[in-house]
Amino acid sequence: MKPGSWGSIWLVYIYSILCAASISKLVPIEGEVERAFHTTPAGVGIAISIISVSSIFAATIGGGIIDRIGARRSVIATSIFLVFCNILGFFATSMTMLDVARLLEGVEFIGIIVAAPALIMATTTGKRQVQAMTLWSTYTPAGVGLGLLLAVPFAGTSAWRWTFIVHGALFALAAAFGWLLPDTAREATAQAPQRKRPGWTDFLEIYREWGPWKLSISNALLVSIALGTSTVIPRYFARVHHISIATSSSILAAGYVPMIFAGIGAGYLLGRGIRPRSIYIGITLAGIASGILLYVPSISFPVAIVAIAVWLPCTGAAVAVLMALLPRVTGDPARGGAAMGLVGQVMAIGNFVTPPIYLALLPKGNWLDFVALVLGGWILSLAFIPAWRARPAAASLTAQNGAGMPASH
Q1: Please, which residues have CB within 8 angstroms of residue 55's CB and are 6 or more apart in sequence?
Q2: Number of independent structural domains in the chain
Q3: What does pTM read for this prediction?
Q4: Is 323 left (phi over 0), alpha (psi -120 to 50) or beta?
Q5: Is 360 domain-assigned?
Q6: pLDDT tens digits, residue range 112-130?
Q7: Closest Cα partner for 344 from 48, 141, 51?
């Protein structure tokens, strides 16, 4: 595909969705996993979160390597590897074996999720870049929703293992289309021959820049409370509102659809020149209000559904704003992989500790604990956003730079 074309952007988006599905596919079948391997809710929480370990230790390094070898090769190789990870999960005979499968599966958050925005940043500029990055940012809600739907048919049945087969088959299909992706390493060299190709240790420079760190921390805090809520809401709603886990999982999955449109809407507002901080303040206020209502046990079920319908779009729009800022804090598109690697590395730490914390709080039944996490997460995320004086890059670029191809240097 042509670098920067919407076809290549949408294909990258599909790969990212499949990766995010890995996070949530265990949520509807938590009970089956507990019974099959004689573990606890916290044990399942570890199985959900252990997928982040690879990113904790290697995301930034992996991003630097991707900048060097190109996103296309990384995405294809990782997709093939994930087919085998899902097969291993299907045949797991113990909790340890399942944890190993999940640990290996976490490579996707380096090989695909880090490579995806690096490809977008290397092949787009201006309004096209803002639109592409905000679209791509919605991969998490779309993917988490997909992961829930993959497992819902098998929830409460002895066929729960087939969740892994379905997910692996989707990755096999995606790998077959990998040849359509543009080779960003060669394209960047061809279009900007005077630019020095990133060296193997250039990713270390990212660690010395405060902008990427602030963005990474803000994003990690936001994603953590979103992931934690998605992890416990199916069981929490089942207990508080007396519905089945399959039903509450389906409701949660349906709520991810408007979350995607909210991310795209945030991209539209940024493209119109509205300051990121103004958008983020509004999102934060709505996110806090709806997040609190989600956990208040005395509210009616219809009100809880409305709360989900507000909460999920708020988190989707917030992530979109942060990802649209990534090219601004990175500066050099040739280091997009390293920058996203840092974002992924910090986010992985939050993703690792969040599910066990939320699942450990669930049996205690104190809804105020969840409210405290919601308040703290949103407020701190707002405090760290690196956009208090910045305007979106698209607001100051000409129409031709928004056409989709990298600007000349």
Answers
A1: 106, 109, 110, 344, 345, 347, 348, 351
A2: 1
A3: 0.75
A4: alpha
A5: yes
A6: 988 888 888 888 878 888 8
A7: 51
